[in-house]
Amino acid sequence: MEFCPKCGSVILVEGKKANCAKCSYKPKGKIKIQTSQKGGAGGRIAVIDEKKMQTYPIVPIKCPECKAKEAFFWTMQTRSSDEAETKFYKCVDCEHTWREYQ
After folding, report:
1. How far is CA 75 from CA 10, 15, 22, in A?
2. I want to staple 22 with a disulfide (CB 3.0 to 4.6 A). Which of 9, 15, 77, 98 is the partner?
3. From the candidates 49, 70, 83, 95, which is the catalytic residue?
4. Rounded distance, CA 59 to CA 69, Å?
5. Secondary structure (DSSP) of 67-80
6. pLDDT tens digit string along 20-66?
7. SS3 state of residue 88
8. Does residue 1 or residue 55 have the better pLDDT?
9. Which of the following is catalytic: 14, 49, 82, 100?
10. pTM of the model
């Protein structure tokens, strides 16, 4: 990504043409287009396992499928704003998901 030396805005590249998005400055020479991004030290990219990254709170509730005693929960507004929100639960053991309306 290149920035304009006059105003600091991003220089847009369209085909072989390049100019500033704000002040129409045209850079002299070639613009280097970066197509990939190296991650971290030494070019290593961290892999995140989403199953290990559960950030939902755990509550004591019985799963209707496997009868486990804990589940993650979150809430969402699934109906109009003047109605109560919907609680969703996901079993810690079998990952069965269900919901409760208030």
Report:
1. 39, 46, 42
2. 9
3. 83
4. 9
5. --SEEEEEEE--S-
6. 777 777 777 666 655 555 555 566 677 776 666 667 888 999 999 99
7. strand
8. 55
9. 82
10. 0.47
